Amino acid sequence: MKGNEQTGLTHFRVYTLVIYRIGVRLLLVFHRRFAEASGMVQVTVLTLFDNKRKDKSMETNSAPLFHRNPQAPPVNRNREQALLIGLMSGEQEFFYTNSLTTGRSREELSRHLSLAVRLKDKPNIQLVFNFLKEEGERSAYNIMISLFLSEHNEKKREALIKERFLGIDRFVQYCRNLSDFLVYIKENNTIEITNEDLQRGILAWDLGHLVSLARVSYDYGLLAEEEAWKYIEFAGKKCRETFACWKEIGKSFLLGQIMSYPGEENFQEAIRYFLLSTESPESPWVKCKFG
What we know:
Blueprint lengths: L13 E10 L2 H7 L7 E10 L6 H7 L14 H8 L2 H5 L14 H8 L8 H13 L3 H13 L3 H11 L4 H20 L6 H6 L2 H18 L4 H18 L3 H15 L3 H16 L4 H4 L4
Helix pairs in contact: 3-12, 5-11, 7-8, 7-9, 8-9, 9-13, 11-12, 11-13, 13-14
InterPro entries: DUF1266
Protein name: DUF1266 domain-containing protein
Pfam family, one: DUF1266
C-alpha cells in the first residue's frame, strides 16, 4: 500500500467516524440540477485508514492462502455464503475463511481498531455498522457513476463533476481514481470491467468490510455471537439480491478498493486478490456455488 511501510496486502480498514451535515434534498439537487436545497440531516461518513504492520512482508510469506479453521463448528449454507462475502477483505488480513472467529490474536485485533479508539465501545461501533448497512462508500459512488458514464472525455468529465458537486472533493477523486484504473487494465490487458460492472457499484466493498468488522468485533468482545451473525447474514442476503455470482461480488469489492487506494501498485494488488479469489482452485468461491 502506498504510504505504508510495506506494500504487500491491503490492510483491514479501520473506521474513524467523521460527521458531516448535509441537506437531505442535496442528492436530488445533484441529479435534477436544482439550485436550492432545504432540510438538514446528519450523515455519517467513514474515513478508511490503513493499519501499519511491523513486518508485513514476513507475515505475507508465511501466511497460507485461504486458511481454514480446523476447529470451526459447522454452519448452515446461508451463514457459510454470508461469511464468504468478506473473502477478499478477510484474505488480505489472513483471516480464517470458514469460521466466525478470525484466527487473529488479541494484539492483532486491537491493532485493527487502534487508529479509531472510539470504535472500541459498543455504541460507537453500532454507528459504523448502521452506516455500512445503509449508506457506505457506495452512496458517493452511486451519485458519481452516472456522470462518469455520461462523459467519455476525461477532462470534460472531471470538469462536469467539479461543477455539479462544488466543494465535494470526494466525487472528483473517485472519478479520477476510477478513470486511472480503467486505463490501467486496458493497457495491461489484465481483467475486464464492463459498464454493467460499473453500474452494479461497490456494494460488496461496503458489505465485505461489514462482515470483516463484525468478525473482528466478535473476537474482540464488542459483539455477542448472534449479533455478529446478524450483520454477516444481512450482508449475505443483500448480496444474493444484488449479484448473480462470486465474480460480480469480487468486481464490486475490487472497484471499491481501487477507488480508495489508487496507483499502479495498489491496482496490481487489488487485481491479484480478485484473481486469486475467483480463479484459484483453493478459493472457497471456486469450491462453493453462489446462490
